[in-house]
Amino acid sequence: MPEFEVVASDDPMLDPKGLRAVLGTDTDLSVADLRSTDALVAACEGADAVVTDVSTPVPREAIERLSLSVIGRAGVGVDNIDVAAAAEADVTVVHVPDYCTDEVATHSLTLLLSTLRGVASYDRQVAGGGWGWEDGRAVHRLHGSSVGIVSFGPIARRFAGLLSGFDVDVLASDPFVDAETMADHGVTKRSYEAMVDEVDHLVSLAPLTPETRGMVGAETFAALPEHAVVVNTGRGGVVDEAALAEALDAGEIGAAGLDVLDEEPPHDSPVVGRDDVIVTPHAGWYSVQARDELNRDVGQYVAEALRGERPEGWIDPSAEWL
């Protein structure tokens, strides 16, 4: 008889076979659709742990109705989990903070370059029978420009390293990272307001918190130059999509590249389907290697937490960034 019962989301990013191999023979793993609070509560009744994806809401209501010991987030961000409620209920929350650092950094650079160069609109033009380099918005040189980064965690630091070969000035805004640490990565620290006044392009890698929701909005777009490219590979709610669409329509900025949206998948987003916006389906994290590491690590951390250990991926509920 297995000692522990674990329920995992049926999201394709999770690999039940890989999870079972790491969780061990003392754990019974089942898979369920967990995309609503009611579904989560129904599937996890009597379970010791749940492994969630980004689309699995774990609010206070669910935590109080269940008898979980561990919540495992298969990913970096935990904005879908009420970490404070989990701490009050003595539930350990774990995540995987570094499985896709290179992937998201690379995707951020890809969106910046492809959006800057108008790659998607050129591709659509050629597919429709066109062949005009001049058909589209003006393309500006990256060399000699400046790029601002919102938040300066591990992914942003890797992204800054990738930018180092393009001869650009890199600035960053993060209240939790000091100027000396940024300087070690060749980056200049600025307040958010000062940064958007100085840079040519803006890349957000920020987590979604009450403080960051909508922070990349109308005031930011008005401060950026008309040729600016805005990239978001952090969390969708950080960028105000309605304000972004209005800024693009008004010519306040040049284009945008988004891997994350406020609603995923989108149903009525004003930025989807535009020639001046590239949207990818929250795919920045993905590579074969990253998916393997994700399942291995979240399974290991859940197993360790169930045994009463403090795993590497433990979330400190008092952490400032939550």
UniProtKB/TrEMBL annotation:
The keyword ATP-binding does not apply. InterPro entries: D-iso_2-hydroxyacid_DH_PdxB, D-isomer_2_OHA_DH_cat_dom, D-isomer_DH_NAD-bd, NAD(P)-bd_dom_sf. Keywords: NAD, Oxidoreductase. One of its GO terms (molecular function) is oxidoreductase activity. It comes from the Archaea. Residues 109-284 form the D-isomer specific 2-hydroxyacid dehydrogenase NAD-binding domain. Coiled coil: none annotated. Residues 25-312 form the D-isomer specific 2-hydroxyacid dehydrogenase catalytic domain. SUPFAM superfamilies: Formate/glycerate dehydrogenase catalytic domain-like, NAD(P)-binding Rossmann-fold domains. Belongs to the D-isomer specific 2-hydroxyacid dehydrogenase family. This is NAD(P)-dependent oxidoreductase. It comes from Salinirubrum litoreum.
